[in-house]
Amino acid sequence: MDVTEEQKNTSSAEAFQLLLNRLSPDPETAGKEYERLRTGLMNYFHLKGLARSVDLADQTLDRVASLLLTKDVSDLAGFCFGVARLICMEQYRAESRQRNANERFAQNVHSHDDDHRYELMRRCLEGLAAAEQELLKAYYRNSLPRDRLSMREKLAQQAGITIDGLRLRIHRLRRKLENCLNEMSSQ
């Protein structure tokens, strides 16, 4: 059975209201408790070294709200931080996969005869649309590691997508380049 967008929104609203009711029967107190919990989650993700702490805190609370529809939870704050721990591990794995992909890509570019590979890379880049070329250049522009994330967040904003959407787009462009390099190398 397919779930319509309206049903998703209804269940999300219902789940969110359930979360607020679990925090406090008084709407004003529930709102304050929600913000206190959200701030605690943001601090947790920040301390764990994850840059998107606001998004991850919201994601945690969304998951908790959905889980409350089917689970009976006695310690709501503890449950929230347990879900946050799982989301933290998911993020570490995702970042690790991204880092490994970046390293493999860099190794492919620098292997064999560098001048020949450079020429192949230049030709493969020229095969991309101008906007795709500019996006790749901006994404990999040399900057200090501490500035890299904020620069990429700005880049995602300019493109009108999320940071995850940007990473996915870059991943696909890298794949195009790798395929092109592999094809040209085998000729």
Question: Would you write up a description of this structure?
Answer:
The chain has eight helices and no strands. The chain folds into two domains: 87 residues; 74 residues, Arc Repressor Mutant, subunit A, CATH 1.10.10. It starts with a helix and ends with a helix. The N terminus is likely disordered. Helices cover 81% and strands 0% of the residues. It has 187 residues and is mainly alpha-helical. It is elongated, with a radius of gyration of 22 Å.
Give a topology summary.
Elements: H1 5-23, H2 27-47, H3 53-68, H4 76-110, H5 114-126, H6 130-139, H7 145-159, H8 163-185
Helix pairs in contact: 1-2, 1-3, 2-3, 2-4, 3-4, 4-8, 5-8
Keywords:
mainly alpha; 8 helices; 81% helix; elongated; disordered N terminus
Reading the helices and strands in chain order gives HHHHHHHH
Number of strands: 0
| Distance between the amino and carboxyl termini | 49 Å
Which descriptor suits the 3D outline?
elongated
Largest sheet: none
| Rounded average pLDDT | 83
Which secondary-structure class do the elements indicate?
A: mainly alpha
Contiguous runs where pLDDT drops below 50 for at least 5 residues: 1-8
Helix content: over 70%
Rounded to an integer, what's the Rg over CA atoms?
Answer: 22 Å
Enumerate how many helices there are, as a single number.
8
How many domains comprise the coordinates? Answer: 2
Hey, roughly how much beta strand do the residues contain? under 5%
